[in-house]
Every structure is written in C-alpha cells, then in structure tokens.
Amino acid sequence: MQHYQFLRNLCFLLAICGLSGVVLAASTCNTCQDNNVKCLNETHFSFCSSGVDPDQVIGCPDGQVCTAYQRICMPQGAPPSCTEVNCPACDGSSPFVCISRTTFQTCNGKELGEQIIKCKDDTFCSMSSGKYCVDRCVALNLQSTFECDKEAT
C-alpha cells in the first residue's frame, strides 16, 4: 500500500511540474542565451557577439559544465544548458523508435520509416511498454527517464 501511495504522489508531483512549466531537462544546444554565449554541448561554448568570431569554440575547465548563468562554466552538478541526447535507432528489435518524448517513427528492420507520428496529448513515447504512447507515470515507471528525452521538432 505504501508503494502505491508513493507512486501516486510521484506521478502527481510530475504532473504538477509539467503543468507549471518547470523545466526538468536542459535547454536546446547551439542557442544564444541571456549570458551571450551558446553552449555547443555540455562542456564547450562560443560567444554570441558580433565582435567575436562565432567559429571560436571554448572549452570549460575539467570538471565544469556550460551553463546559462553569468558565470559560464560551473562545477559539475550545476544544471548544464545543453546536453546531448542520444535517442534509439532502428536496430531490428522493435517495430518503432521514439524520436522525441512525444513522437515516434516506425522501423522496417534497421530502416526508419518516413512518417513522424505524434502521441495523443498528455501521452509519451515508450518503446519498452510496446504500446507506442503511454501516460507519464507508466513511461517513467518502466525507465527512470524518457527513452528519447527531447522536445518534438
């Protein structure tokens, strides 16, 4: 009974976070931020200024990540502005792959289908469920994070 109550409370908290606009994942890469830099990945950035060569890539010191804060590089543990997301590819073992939290494409063996399919509102792509799209609690109970944790394009 306590396990059920914990899961119910966790789902409620996740739903509230999603509705209030709280961002649990890092923002997009390669976008100019308020601190006038664009993080290219977790540890490298370039300046967003007409006076600086945009092709100049600067790395954060070891153990630090690129952030949207005034202090560009901060110790690991600070929320990075950009994380590389590796989504699953067609490998012949699944009839589809998630290409974002809310979209998927079919697989024909190791070939990706052309059509992008969107999940219904308030459902999320889940390969491990085998049901294509499920509610948030089901998706996060099967795995600790979404199988392709990025926004739909």
UniProtKB/TrEMBL annotation:
Keyword flag Signal: yes
Q: Where is the signal peptide?
A: 1-25
UniProt KW Signal keyword? yes
* Top-rank lineage group of the source organism: Eukaryota
Q: Keywords of this protein's UniProt record, alphabetized?
A: Signal
Q: What is this protein called?
A: Uncharacterized protein
Q: Which organism is it from?
A: Drosophila kikkawai
- Gene for this chain: LOC108077478
